[in-house]
Design brief:
Elements lengths: L18 H21 L7 E8 L2 E9 L2 E9 L6 E6 L10 H8 L3 E4 L19 E3 L2 E4 L5 E6 L5 E13 L2 E5 L1 E2 L5 E5 L10 E8 L3 E5 L7 E11 L5 E10 L6 E6 L1 H9 L7 E8 L12 E4 L3 E4 L2 E2 L18 H5 L4 E7 L4 E6 L12 H10 L2 E6 L8 E3 L2 E2 L14 E6 L3
Parallel strand pairs: 11-14
Antiparallel strand pairs: 1-2, 2-3, 3-23, 4-27, 5-25, 5-27, 6-7, 6-19, 8-9, 8-19, 9-10, 9-18, 12-13, 14-17, 15-16, 15-17, 20-21, 20-24, 22-23, 22-24, 25-26
Length: 425
């Protein structure tokens, strides 16, 4: 079994010190050899058939018998394709749909599942993103650390490590916002400044906080939670309409609801009074601190980890929270064993590559490890790539039909989706 690639990261901090760094170095050397073997192995021995489903969109089906693999690749070519590609939630953030239903509703030529999402009610709103999400230029969920993301709509498609920040200002006082459209104090995948027990990202782990501000937007599509703390209802011009204990209720159209717990609740109670004006500031930036403008048309799906950057292997599994060099048992099955996978990549000429690998089906398709994913995407011509949600979520719908075989035997209702929408004549 190939090891998880653990690239050294300046942002890994104390968690990667000492013995952790030595373990990373050994893992890097072993992984490079493993990636080379994988690149010359099954990823390059697939037998392909292809079909054109619309102008500038080709879907290919790759098959291999040993190991058994079923791969689907959609290639969206920038020169020939006329239309748009975007990440959508197709309605309320607090909701779930199948890829087939979304493709039909949007009249999409192609749809694949997108980023990680909340699965159980104990972790928040099922279907809501568990990490960064931007739809139609609006920040609808905050990042879980500087994880990978597919960025669409503000130029050619690209893969970036992004992190979001936000704040609420009342007069001369301001307070950081820790979440958008999630339960206060409950942080799926961790990765927020006040999350405990892990401040860094931690895949499929729920962290907690005793003090934070959380914003709720109209796209939530559900009642905000009630409970201890303070709640403020804000109108479309930023004026506080109501303030008091957390009572739940709907988010007003073109307005916001802000909830606070712990010390953040005390701040709300002191500064957010009816009739007062609140200013909400949101910012999105890459690892270098360069801003990404939240403009109409921008859409982003969060993933983890980044697989390729500049044509080279760039999996930083520890920093992105999918592996821990000090705890080899953590997420072993998710990261190191073959699983169903969904990936997004960008080719040398700007092509968007959307790829699924079916898995958990002995004799039909085994799936891929993270390292095998990277080798596969490089063999397909990607220079950058990121792992999206996978497992039972891995789904591709092309030309109105489900083309892969989901591991659960049927499509799962997922959170957000990457959809390819040809221009209608």
């Amino acid at each position: 079994m190939l090891p998880v690639f653990l690239a050294a990261s300046a942002g890994a901090g104390a968690d990667q010190a000492g013995a952790g760094r030595a373990a990373q170095s050994r893992a890097v050397r072993a992984a490079v050899a493993g990636v080379q073997a994988a690149g010359a192995g099954w990823a390059r021995r697939l037998h392909w058939t292809s079909r054109r489903i619309a102008a500038g969109i080709v879907v290919r089906h790759g098959v291999l018998r040993g190991p058994a693999e079923q791969v689907h690749e959609a290639i969206v070519s920038p020169g020939a394709f006329r239309g748009r590609v975007e990440v959508i939630h197709d309605g309320a953030v607090a909701g779930q749909h199948t890829a087939s239903a979304v493709a039909a509703a949007q009249r999409a030529a192609l749809a694949v599942n997108g980023g990680f999402f909340i699965v159980t009610g104990s972790a928040g709103y099922p279907g809501a993103p568990a990490g960064l999400a931007v739809y139609h230029g609006r920040l609808e969920s905050m990042s879980a650390g500087a994880r990978g993301a597919l960025v669409l709509g503000d130029g050619p498609p690209r893969i970036e490590h992004l992190i979001s920040t936000a704040s609420v200002r009342a007069g001369g006082s301001s307070r950081p916002v820790q979440g958008i459209n999630r339960r206060p104090g409950v942080i799926e995948n961790c990765g927020r400044p006040d999350s405990r027990p892990f401040r860094a990202p931690r895949q499929d782990v729920t962290c907690y906080s005793r003090s934070e501000l959380v914003l709720f937007t109209p796209q939530l599509g559900a009642a905000v939670p009630s409970g201890p703390g303070e709640q403020v209802v804000v109108g479309p011009r930023g004026t506080v309409r109501w303030a008091g204990p957390r009572r739940g209720g709907a988010v007003p159209a073109r307005g916001l609801v802000i909830q606070g717990i712990g010390a953040a609740a005390t701040w709300l109670r002191r500064h957010a009074r009816p009739g007062r004006h609140l200013a909400v500031r949101e910012r999105l930036a890459d690892r270098r601190g360069q801003p990404v403008a939240l403009r109409p048309g921008l859409s982003i799906a969060s993933g983890a980890p980044v697989l390729l950057s500049g044509g080279h292997l760039a999996i930083d599994a520890a920093a992105e929270g999918v592996s821990d060099p000090r705890d080899p048992s953590f997420n072993y099955a998710w990261a190191r064993e073959r699983q169903p996978r969904t990936m997004a990549g960008v080719g040398r000429s700007g092509q968007l590559l959307l790829v699924t690998v079916d898995g958990r089906q002995p004799g039909v398709s085994e799936g891929a490890t993270l390292v095998e994913e990277a080798a596969l995407m490089r063999s397909l011509g990607a220079v950058s790539a990121v792992n999206l949600d996978g497992g039972g979520s891995t789904t591709m719908v092309a030309g109105g039909a489900l083309v892969n075989r989901p591991s659960g035997g049927a499509e799962r209702a997922d959170g957000d989706f990457v959809v390819v929408l040809p221009r209608r004549r």
